[in-house]
Design brief:
The complex is a heterodimer.
Chain A: H1 4-29, H2 38-66, H3 72-77, H4 88-91, H5 97-118, H6 124-152, H7 156-169, H8 181-188, H9 199-212, H10 235-244, H11 246-250
Helix pairs in contact in A: 1-2, 1-8, 2-6, 5-6, 5-7, 5-9
Chain B: E1 7-13, E2 21-27, H1 31-42, E3 50-55, H2 67-71
Antiparallel strand pairs in B: 1-2, 1-3
The chains are: A mainly alpha, B alpha+beta.
Chain lengths: ~260, ~90
Amino acid sequence: MAGKTNDDALFQFLLRMGDNSLILGHRVSEWCGLSPVLEEDIALANTALDLIGQTQFWLGLAGEVEGKGRTADDLAFLRDAWDFRNVLMVELPNGDFGQTMMRQFLYDAWSQVMVGRLIKSGDKRIADIAEKASKEVAYHVERSADTVVGLGDGSEESHARMQAAIDYLWPYVGEMFDGDEVDAAMVAAGIAPDPASLREEYDALVNKVLSEATLKVPTDVFHHKGGRTGYMHTEHLGHLLTSMQWLQRAYPGATW
Amino acid sequence: MSKEWPLWEVFIRGQHGLSHRHVGSLHAPDEEMAIKNARDVYTRRNEGVSIWVVEARHIAASSPEEKGPLYEPSNSKVYRHPTFFDIPDDVGHM
């Protein structure tokens, strides 16, 4: 596992994990003070904080593996859009509350399957992070699944909004299961699973919850991509970063 | 039908062995979400090991106007307190 190429691949893999939780955590935090009810406001803030907590572990390890002295904070606040490796789905604007909860469920379901595999990673540092995250993730998916079912199988309006949400978000789901040479290196090193191998378990969970929610899973197989490889993000990531990184951009090196 | 979610009263047991204590209330569409909301609103700082929720409308409460008949009769019955026994010194603090 010592080779330079492997460390590069490991660095990329860790950025993907950390950037997913960072960008989604930031998006979810945008609901703080604006949620439809107080209880959801606090619950979403908790989720955002959990995700940012996970980010500290993933990006902290990424900086360590990179070996250039960059900290998790450096990676979060001093990179520009093209250096981010999150999937496109997590950078999309929140939309309405239903769309936010649908995205949360679609991500949580992936996260649960992924973390479940990473607990058995051959790299103990990764297995430890996965173990720590697994309890949060289990709660997140339980909560977001319940909300998706509650709203999907709710009023006529909430059902229509949730169907619109899954129709809109579905083309972004496939990217989570794309693999490339980084993933191949992780599989070869026994560090992380082939993303495609998560799909069956993911689909079973998503289909079960969406059918309980009386929602139709789109059958279109097309999906957007470019986030996890860094090839091309959506226009939304840059806007998100201007807000997330504002302080470091306005006052470089500020600490408190 | 009201569009407002029903009100739930939340009881949390802080440590094993202690009883559940009323900590506040919240709104939720059903009992499962009420427990989740209670977890998120009232146990963020590691306060609890167990949560009870009960819909507020199911709580029967005594009426403040009846406090005379309910509580005053016990005022004059000091003998109900077990303070008239001589406790041997060996027993120590009770």
